[in-house]
Design brief:
mainly beta; ten-stranded antiparallel beta sheet; 10% helix
Length: 187
């Protein structure tokens, strides 16, 4: 297995393209002495101030400042007081956009002794952050092994016919923007 860490250039592109291209990429999380590995299977794109579903539609706030940062930074926020949402900043600096990671599969726990497949549900953004030990401590950091969270390309190819699109979830308040087919998943 060849693994190439994905850098800032990957994220410095149109948010919708990044969201689609993240499918099949591998998410790594180093937490204490444990390494977690999972394949990204579902994403959502949030693109610019005009996108009423995007947190930046109301302007720059202390919470959304990271979305204006350089591509490849981590944006984490808490919903319902209990679920952390994992996002990656896209587009050039000062253009607010990010991709939400909605689903992963094949979650593995890797340590010096062996690799274990974890039989847990990771089909939602709150579930995956819980099992990967992701919280606000990663907010505003760059995706990189040094920060404990990174993405790698391991050559997994998802055929175009297996990539589905749908409307984003939980953004009905965004009116016509809620109907944008900016959710991408492996069917």
């Amino acid at each position: 297995m060849t693994s190439k860490i994905i850098g800032q250039d990957f994220f410095n592109r149109d948010t919708r393209t990044v969201a689609k291209d993240l499918l099949g990429k591998v998410l790594y999380r180093q937490y204490n002495n444990t390494l977690y590995r999972a394949i990204i299977t579902e994403t959502e794109a949030y693109h610019g101030k005009e996108d009423l579903a995007c947190h930046c539609s109301k302007g720059k706030t202390p919470r959304t400042t990271v979305m204006y940062d350089a591509p490849g930074h981590i944006y984490i926020y808490l919903i319902y007081g209990m679920y952390y949402m994992l996002n990656f900043v896209t587009m050039p600096k000062d253009f607010p956009a990010a991709v939400l990671i909605r689903g992963i599969s094949n979650l593995q726990k890797i340590d010096i002794e062996d690799t274990k497949n974890l039989p847990v549900k990771t089909d939602g953004p709150g579930k995956l952050t819980k099992h990967l030990k992701i919280d606000k401590s990663l907010n505003k950091l760059a995706l990189h092994p040094d920060t404990g969270l990174w993405i790698a390309n391991e050559g997994i190819i998802i055929p175009k016919k297996q990539i589905a699109t749908g409307t984003r979830i939980g953004v009905a308040y965004a009116k016509v923007w809620a109907e944008k087919p900016w959710r991408y998943y492996i069917s």
